[in-house]
Each structure stands twice: as structure tokens, then as C-alpha cells.
User: Which sequence fits this backbone?
């Protein structure tokens, strides 16, 4: 194991330790306080309004490959879907989830099934609530549009791996007058989302969905851990920049040749 | 599968793959490779299940007999024709590629072209919807990068604009992108760890 791999392993262990510790602390203290993210405040309100109006909530999970890091943002989308499915379970029009990838489609159906199962209403579960609508980015966007226009959708949450095609989805949703919330892990996707969504989720905000919708203490703990780790990384970046300025980086590379990428 | 069993299997598989990535022990690495291959095969099967689900949704729409049912008929007929063509002539056969090059590619290209117009309109709408400092900075930056990238009609390339574009893209652009990517990476690691400790169970456990 070289020194860079060792550092990576130590970092993952650190994240494990922090999340487990903060989960225990959060349970003891009754949770942590976070800044307000308007998108999640409006999403919570929209769920209640949709249930009252008998309208439908739509969650677009994107098309991230399951054997890549793109899948992580889709997993957050599934957590958001779980919270929405539970909150809107009494609605006449159940929520609908769209995906552009087979594994996401099955996981979204499983999310509905387990949410309804835990509420004791498994008989209301319908596999068509979690749908595969297209397999390429633009094919996916084209498949989402009929759901927005034809199925009494009032709120559109796009949370997952989405790139430029999300503009077509957001535009259709805005034209229909729906609340449009969107977040992605992709940089081009985020730029497009900023311009086209009513409530954009920028940067790591997309990964805060579980914590802000009250999924579990572990979600709040992971958010707290991310905040601390970000500060550590900023400090390391500043130290390394100063080190390069004063020539200490060469000294470190001479001492630990394994650090040379 | 009962929840505790599926959760235990998912956590064990995740930990083995993670350890196989960091620890160069041959047994672990081969288990990791095998599990990743299984994941790829399962993802392919998931795709088939997803397509069956898609067909089921559209059969349901046709049965409801709404005006939009005609689109569902078109989708199902296209699906059947594509599956038969790709199965009979193989996915890289002449007719399969004809479908791809003459139907799918032009449709996706036109959606891409539509996107360019849509983004300009969205930029104008953004100022009406959310008029604040960041929206103005966003639009001015986008405009400067755009006119610094392409030559202007009858004027040609303006060196000063090109320089401004390069400065924007290489200094604040790269710095901002790295900051966002660091946040996204931390979020992805935390999400992975939550799945590994069983706090997130997207497999319905």
C-alpha cells in the first residue's frame, strides 16, 4: 500500500468514525442545527399542499451509472423519494419517480414498496410509480415531459445525476406552473439548474436532502461531518499553498517520495 | 428477502469492495473484481426489468384510452421494432445502426439545439424571477465567456474579450469548480458511508 492509498484509507476511516460519533451525539442532544435551505423548506410545504389538493409529486432521479460515483447523488434522490412517499402516502395521487437507468428504476420501486410496507399500506403500492423513462440523457428528458404534462404533477424535484438535459425538464415544469426544485452532482448540470430551476440546489446542498427532510440522525451526522471535513480540507489546501510558496513541498517530497502522484 | 438479511449482505459486499480497493491482498482484490462484474451483469438485468416496466406503464395508458394514448402506441411499436431489429441483425448490424443514426441521433441533436435557445430564454427569465447580485454576475459571466469564445459577426475576434474569457475560465471558473467538486466528493463519500453502516437502505431493507 503506497502512502497516497494509505491516506485515502485513513480519510474514509475518519469519515466512518465521525458519522458514527455524531450519530450517537445527535441522538443524545436531539439533533443539530443547520442553516436554512429554501429548496427543502418549500419542498416540505409542497408535499402538504399536494396532499390537500390531490396533486402528484414527481421525483426525477437522473441516470447515474451504478458502478460509478455518479450513483451517489441518485441515492440521495432515493432518500428524498422515501420521505416524500411517506408524507404523501394518504394522497389520492401517489408520487411518481422517473429514472434513466435500470438499477435506479428498481431501487425507486423498492423505496416505494418499503415506505408503504412500513406504513402498513403495502396494498396501495403500484410498481408503475417507479419508472424507467429513457436511457440516454436527452431520451430521459423526453420521457419525463409527458409525466409532467399529463399526470397532474404539482411539484417537480430533480435530484440525482443530471446534466444539461435537466433544462428541458425544468422548463417544462416551470411552464406548467409547478414548484421546480433541482440539484445535481454534475458541474454543467448545476450551471443549467441555477438558470432554469425555481429553487436550485448548488454544490453539496444536493447531498443534504436526507438531513433536511428528517430521514435519520445518521443523515444529520453525515452533514455535520461534511462541514468539519470541508474545513479540514480548506486548511490543508491553504497549508499546501503556503508550503509551495516557501518551498517546503519539495522537502516533504524528498522525505516521503510516495507522496509524489 | 427479509430486511436484516438483505441489509447484512449489502453491508458485507460494500465493505469487501471498499477494502479490496485499499488493501492490495490478492484474495480481496479478486473478490472485489468479481463483485463489480456481478454488479455490471445485474445492472444489465435491471435494464431489462426497467424496459418491461416502461412497456407496462404505456400499455396501461393505452387501456385508459386518453388522447395521448397514441404516443404510447408509437413508443410500444418502436420498442418492438427496435428489439426485433437489434436481436435479428445484432446491435451493430446495418439496420440497427440505421435506426440509431437516422432516428435516435437526429432527435437527440434537435433536442440539443432546442436547449441552446431554451438557455437564452432561461437567462432572461432568471433576471425576472430572481433579480439579485448572483444572478447578474451569472448572466454577465455567461455572456462574456460566450462572446469571448466565438467571433462576432462582421467584427471577428476581439483579443481583449478573448483575454477576459481566459481569465474568467482559468481563475474564478477553475477555483469555483474545484470548490464545488470538493463539496460534491465529500457528499458522495458520506452517502457511501451511510449505505455501508446501514443508515441508508435504498434496497428497501
Assistant:
Amino acid at each position: 500500500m503506497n502512502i497516497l492509498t494509505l491516506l485515502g484509507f485513513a480519510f474514509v476511516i475518519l469519515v466512518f468514525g465521525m458519522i458514527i460519533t455524531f450519530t450517537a451525539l445527535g441522538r443524545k442532544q436531539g439533533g443539530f442545527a443547520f442553516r436554512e435551505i429554501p429548496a427543502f423548506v418549500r419542498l416540505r410545504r409542497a408535499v402538504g399542499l399536494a396532499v390537500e389538493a390531490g396533486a402528484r409529486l414527481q421525483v426525477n432521479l437522473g441516470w447515474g451509472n451504478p458502478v460509478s460515483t455518479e450513483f451517489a447523488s441518485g441515492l440521495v434522490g432515493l432518500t428524498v423519494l422515501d420521505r416524500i412517499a411517506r408524507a404523501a402516502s394518504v394522497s389520492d395521487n401517489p408520487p411518481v419517480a422517473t429514472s434513466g437507468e435500470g438499477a435506479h428504476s428498481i431501487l425507486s420501486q423498492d423505496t416505494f414498496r418499503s415506505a408503504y410496507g412500513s406504513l402498513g399500506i403495502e396494498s396501495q403500492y403500484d410498481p408503475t410509480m417507479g419508472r424507467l423513462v429513457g436511457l440516454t440523457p436527452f431520451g430521459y428528458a423526453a420521457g419525463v415531459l409527458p409525466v409532467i404534462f399529463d399526470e397532474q404533477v404539482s411539484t417537480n424535484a430533480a435530484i440525482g445525476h443530471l446534466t444539461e438535459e435537466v433544462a428541458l425538464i425544468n422548463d417544462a415544469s416551470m411552464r406548467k406552473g409547478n414548484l421546480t426544485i433541482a440539484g445535481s452532482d454534475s458541474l454543467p448540470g448545476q450551471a443549467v439548474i441555477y438558470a432554469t430551476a425555481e429553487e436550485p440546489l448548488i454544490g453539496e446542498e444536493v447531498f443534504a436532502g436526507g438531513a433536511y427532510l428528517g430521514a435519520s440522525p445518521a443523515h444529520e451526522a453525515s452533514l455535520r461531518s461534511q462541514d468539519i471535513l470541508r474545513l479540514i480540507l480548506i486548511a490543508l489546501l491553504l497549508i499546501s499553498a503556503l508550503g509551495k510558496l516557501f518551498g517546503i513541498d519539495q522537502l516533504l517530497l524528498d522525505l516521503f517520495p510516495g507522496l509524489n502522484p | 428477502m427479509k430486511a436484516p438479511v438483505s441489509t447484512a449482505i449489502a453491508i458485507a459486499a460494500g465493505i469487501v469492495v471498499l477494502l479490496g480497493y485499499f488493501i492490495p491482498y490478492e484474495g480481496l482484490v479478486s473478490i472485489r473484481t468479481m463483485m463489480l462484474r456481478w454488479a455490471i451483469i445485474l445492472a444489465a438485468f435491471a435494464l431489462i426489468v426497467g424496459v418491461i416496466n416502461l412497456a407496462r406503464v404505456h400499455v396501461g395508458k393505452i387501456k385508459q384510452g386518453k388522447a395521448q394514448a397514441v404516443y404510447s402506441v408509437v413508443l410500444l411499436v418502436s420498442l418492438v421494432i427496435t428489439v426485433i431489429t437489434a436481436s435479428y441483425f445484432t446491435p451493430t448490424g446495418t439496420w440497427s445502426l440505421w435506426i440509431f443514426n437516422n432516428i435516435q441521433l437526429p432527435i437527440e441533436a434537435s433536442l440539443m439545439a432546442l436547449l441552446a435557445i431554451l438557455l437564452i430564454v432561461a437567462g432572461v427569465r432568471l433576471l425576472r424571477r430572481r433579480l439579485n447580485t448572483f444572478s447578474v454576475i451569472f448572466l454577465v459571466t455567461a455572456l462574456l465567456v460566450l462572446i469571448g469564445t466565438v467571433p462576432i459577426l462582421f467584427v471577428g475576434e476581439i483579443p481583449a474579450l478573448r483575454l477576459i474569457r481566459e481569465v474568467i475560465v482559468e481563475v474564478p471558473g477553475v477555483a469555483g469548480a474545484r470548490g464545488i467538486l470538493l463539496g460534491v466528493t465529500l457528499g458522495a463519500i458520506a452517502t457511501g458511508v451511510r449505505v455501508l453502516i446501514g443508515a441508508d437502505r435504498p434496497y428497501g431493507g
Summary: Chain A has a mean pLDDT of 90.
